[in-house]
Amino acid sequence: MTLTLRPRLLDRLPVSLAGVTPAALAGKSLRQIEQTPVWQGNRQLPLAELYEVSGSAADLHWRLEGDFSRVHNIASAMNEGAVHVAGDVGRHAGQQMRGGKLTVEGSAGDWLGAAMRGGSIDLQGDTGNHVGGALVAAKVGMRGGRILVRGSVGTHAAERMRRGWITVLSDCGEWAGHQMRAGTLMVFGSCGPRPGASMRRGTLALLGGAPELLPTFRYACDYAPQALALMLCDLAEQGIDAAQNVSCNVAIYNGDLLEGGRGEVLVARG
């Protein structure tokens, strides 16, 4: 039976669920789960004081129902299992994930999937800044896994990304792919200014049009990459209609030339 959490009351104080993952609670009884300490503001409280807990954690499947917009670090460092949130979530959801799946029916705060290494995130709504980005003072950001954002994202998406795949079905803010090392960021909506600034490697696929690129990017050719066709086919198999309406014919720009010029920006033709 799925473990279900529902807020007992809405409080303005933030709550952190860091370390509270399906694998961490899998072998515990319902009573033990209710006594799991979590941080609310600057104090620790039993989980049951903040949330109504029901079901079992044995099958590694969780369902969170209600407003979790002030609850941070949901599914942080998760390595297996599934967390389904029927509502909004706070900052750092899916941060440093290594496996499993996080599904959010609402929106999310900043740092969604930051420093992620594996697993998948499916967000139905919008999210803030630094999707799949690097934590403060870290050299690299996302290093594996997949993030699908069906709404829009803020600034610095895929910042210092090393591996993985991020798909944004709506609009993306400025500084997309800033200092990318590798990996793929695919945007179906419009993109803000300065995409790919200081990128070393990796791919930015701007399929909904692009702003004027920085002068440190150079046009290479018009092409229909087979890898892009395969990725669009994968998205179409997931029922994403936008992937069926996009042409694989793109203009390819190489850059950032100040960082060696090994990155690529794919811009939809027409």
Describe the overall structure.
This protein has helices spanning 22-25, 30-34, 47-50, 226-237, and strands spanning 3-7, 15-16, 37-40, 43-46, 51-54, 61-65, 71-72, 82-86, 98-104, 118-123, 143-149, 163-168, 184-187, 203-206, 218-223, 250-255, 263-268. The protein is mostly beta strands. It has a single domain (63-268), classed as Glutamate synthase, alpha subunit, C-terminal domain (Pectate Lyase C-like, 3 Solenoid), CATH 2.160.20.60. It has a 13-stranded mixed β-sheet. It has a 4-stranded mixed β-sheet with strand order 4-3-2-7. A hairpin with a 7-residue loop joins β16 (250-255) and β17 (263-268).
Question: Which range best describes the helical content: under 10%, 10-25%, 25-40%, 40-55%, 55-70% or over 70%?
Answer: under 10%
Q: What is the overall number of helices?
A: 4
C-alpha Rg (nearest Å)? 19 Å
Mean pLDDT, to the nearest integer, reads: 96
Question: What is the SS-derived class?
Answer: mainly beta
Q: Main β-sheet, in a few words?
A: 13 strands, mixed
Question: In order across it, which strands form the biggest sheet?
Answer: 5-1-6-8-9-10-11-12-13-14-17-16-15
Assign an overall shape.
elongated
Number of domains: 1
Strand content: 25-35%
Low-confidence stretches: none
- The CATH homologous superfamily name equals Glutamate synthase, alpha subunit, C-terminal domain
Order of helices and strands: EEHHEEHEEEEEEEEEEEHEE
How many beta-strand segments? 17
Write a brief caption for the model:
The chain is mainly beta and 270 residues long.
